[in-house]
Amino acid sequence: MMHATGGINKNLPHQRGEYMRSGFLIALVALAAIASVTLAVAQEKVAAPTKPSLYDRLGGLYPISAVVDDFIDRVYANATLNANPDIAKARSEVRKPGLKVQLANQVCMVTGGPCKYTGKGMKEAHADFHITQKEWDALLVDFRASLDKFKVPSGEQQELVTIVESTKPDIVVRGTGKE
User: What is the pTM for the complete model shown?
Assistant: First the structure.
């Protein structure tokens, strides 16, 4: 029955039921639409998981610092590196703990961690050392030994070695034809 204002009289029993059923149907359709969009978004997130950063896969700053600490100790004791008088001279000028902090920050940063490396660029930092290919190779042996000691998985080791290798053109100057 029409109300005096021309609308539906919601107080009449049969019209009120139709009105409520149509409202319920609209709410049900809206709820189904929301649920399907939510499900699609959730499935996208499940279908495309992101790989954790190398920093996270290494376990964060503490494990990185442990590897760096061991590595620097090895480098300081390495006879091949110590035979280079320019490196030996720098050892008396650079404090070992500071080098460990700088290197840990650098590794943290380049592997996707929150640290900031504030040291010199690789070329500038190593310019006066006149590092040879033989010395570079000795350094990599020490680096791999430290990674092995802490049981860094092979995939992560390869990623780290690739990062270190990317610095070689700025570090090695003798034995490469660049001297």
Answer: 0.71
